[in-house]
Structure formats: C-alpha cells, structure tokens
Amino acid sequence: MGRSGIYVKNFSGDLMYRSFKPAPLPPNPPVNIDESLQIKLGDARQLLGELNTIASLIPDDKLFIYAFMRKESLISSQIEGTQATLEDIFNPHTDELKRLEVDEVNQYTKALDQAIELSEKLPLSNRFIKKIHKILLSHTRGEHKNPGEFRNSQNWIGHHSSSLADARFIPPNVDDMHAAMNELELFIHDDEFNIDPIVKIALIHYQFETIHPFLDGNGRIGRLLILLLLREYGLLTTNVLYISYYLKKYQTEYYDRLNNVRNNHQYEEWVSFFVSGLNETLKHTINMIKAMMKLQNSNINKFAKEHGKTKATLMALLHYLERQPIIDISIASKDLGRSYNTIASAVNHFVKLGMLSQLNTGKRNRLFVYDDYLALLQDGTK
Known about the structure:
This protein is mainly α and 382 residues long. The protein has helices at residues 35-56, 61-79, 86-90, 99-119, 126-137, 174-188, 197-211, 218-232, 244-249, 251-264, 267-302, 308-323, 329-336, 340-352, 371-378, and strands at 5-12, 15-22, 326-328, 357-358, 367-369. A three-stranded antiparallel beta sheet has the order 3-5-4. A two-stranded antiparallel sheet has the order 1-2.
C-alpha cells in the first residue's frame, strides 16, 4: 500500500470503478516537520494562547459565540453550494424561496451547539459523530440520506450530474469505509505516536474527508470536527474559532491539497496549508473580537447617561442585537420579555444614535439592522 493508500477495483453491474482505500494514520514515513512548518506551528500555539486570553476577558462571551457559530454555519454550508447570505440567516422574515437553505444553515448551528455540549460529557467517537450528523441532516433536504448512520452504498465526488463512471474522486467502498473509520477513531485517542496535536488534527481532517462515511454532510461534519479536536486536545478553551473562513477563501486549493495527498502522498503540503489556514483564522478571529468589543463599548458609552429601567432596557436590547443583529420589534419584545412599546422606544433611541437603521420600507413588519455589527460578521461570507 502507498503512503496514503491505494485505489482498489470494485464492480457495480458491468461497471468497473476504483475506490480509494486510505492507509491508516499516522503516515509512514511520518510527516516531515521542517523549519518552515516548525515556525508555523510555533505561531499557531502563540495565537491560540492569545485567543484564549482575549476570549476569557469577554464579560458574556455567549453573545459573541452565537454570532460566530451562525457565521461558521453559513460559510461551511456555502462551501457545499448554499447560496444563502448572512442577512438571510438573521432575517426573521426570510423569503420562503430561501427557507430550505436557511433551515440547513440553522441545523448546522444546532449541530455545532449540541456537539460542543456533548463534548463536555463524551469522548469523540464514531457514535458521537453519528449523533451530530443526525442533528445536521434532520428537517433538511438531506433528511432522506440516512441521518446519523454511515452509508451502506458507494458514494462519489464530482459535479452534480456526475456518476461513478466520471466521478472526480471515489471514497472507500463500504467495507473499507467501516474499517477506516474504526482505525480513525483509535488514532484520535492514541498518544503512542507523540505527534504534534495541530499536525494530528490536520491529518484527521484529511482522513475523514477522504473516507466520506456519510451519504451527505461529510464536509460540514469534517470542518466541525476541527473545533472539537482543538478543544479535545486542550488547545482551545473558547468556541469562537472556525476555520471555514479560510477554507472557503482558498476553496480550490483546499480540494487540490486533499487530492494531492491521495494521489501523490503529499501529507507535508496539506499539513502546511492547514496550519497556515489555522494561523490566518486565528489572526482574523482575534481582530474581529477586538473590533466587536470596541464597538460594544463605544455604543454603551452613547447611552451611558441614561438611568434605571431605560438604561437596563437599552443594555438588554444591545446584547440581543449582538445575538440577532436584524430584528422585528414584535419578536424582540417577546424574546426580551418587555412590552412592544418599551422595545419600540429603545429601537427608536438606537436609530437616533445611529446604531440601527430600518432595513425595509413601510410601516408594517419593519426590520431594523445593527449595521456596524453585521458588517463585521459579513467578512468572508460573500
């Protein structure tokens, strides 16, 4: 078997095709950590420490985390072809034509949230991955593709009208897939090889994407696992880092690097690309958190002279906007447990301060958008 695996013959009726059978991890010979990669790995550890420190200083990081999760859900889904935008995701009155795509993004957010919660109780395992996959595909266009179960038929990767005959890549057949997932599960928890944990995560992501154990949702689950593994290996103590920002930005190279491991055994190039992406994402995330905190403090200062219930309502509305930057007054009043008139007054106050603007025209079903905050989140989503 080659360093990364071999292509094996299979038959589907009269058609002969070759599926890829991946070699177990770690690679043999091991990944060569040259000076350039050592520097990148050192930078990654420093940036991870900085992100953990900054995140620990956020008074209520759950507000920012939810916004980051929605952004990651969108970008990861966009990599798979979703056309929805950030405005669609946050808009409480999304057009019915976009509803299916928005529902899929929302299910990804739910799966991500549940995965983080489950990771506090359960180790990462095939059973764990299946649970998250079931949440991801439930109530979506993929709900008929065996949610929560590994596939029992051959899948392939290619354009929408492709078949086994002209597929760009054919993952392991069913038997090889089950064997590979069992081996991957062992590797995730195996400390015998003393591999740098960041390199290990890069290898696991490659292997999972190559195995493609589900009929649908493999890419989204594979990218979700990156965050979970960073937490599992003690590298990340917050939930605001999502690498899909980088993988979408360099999507063609992302796929090329994965294929280059399969076809040319180039693990080193893939790992270098992955660590570069991690570092760029870390820098982007750190700068984004700083900008969000700066915006929050600036806007709090705008109504600092208010007192009592008025100030409390304005503060509650601001935090609500950090979770839901496009709002309907009626929905916001119910969510915040305050009267319609109270929230309407607070919204008008924010409009006068230049914090909010009306998104649509007319006086019915008015929507208001937290422009500066949404602009920060939109980076990388278009």
